[in-house]
# Entry
Amino acid sequence: QVHLVESGGGLVHAGGSLRLSCAASGRTLTFGAMAWFRQAPGNEREFVTGILRSGGSTRYADSVKGRFTISRDNSKNTVYLQMNSLKPEDTAVYYCAVREAPIVSGWFSEYDYRGQGTQVSVSS
# Structure
């Protein structure tokens, strides 16, 4: 079993920054891809960004391109999400997810392990 723990969420003013972390623990597993999703109240969960463990190729949702940066530390089994120039519409619960297949999928259900989420709130 793999356990994912997100941290770094909080309340920030519009234009501010936050850095989320997602640490994996438990059964040793070679992740192929790691990703972040988010879900705002009343909305469906949506893909934010993903990264391949090997090579570090990334993919971003259009809504966050140029503002968010995903990175990973393979030695720590940790993935990060640096969020800059935050907007009120970025307010959501952010979830990390990992999968063995080395493919960044935009579907939350296609990930083998998913975290419990961390709240990000951006005030105007």
About this structure: The longest strand covers residues 18-26. The CA atoms of residues 91 and 121 lie 5 Å apart.
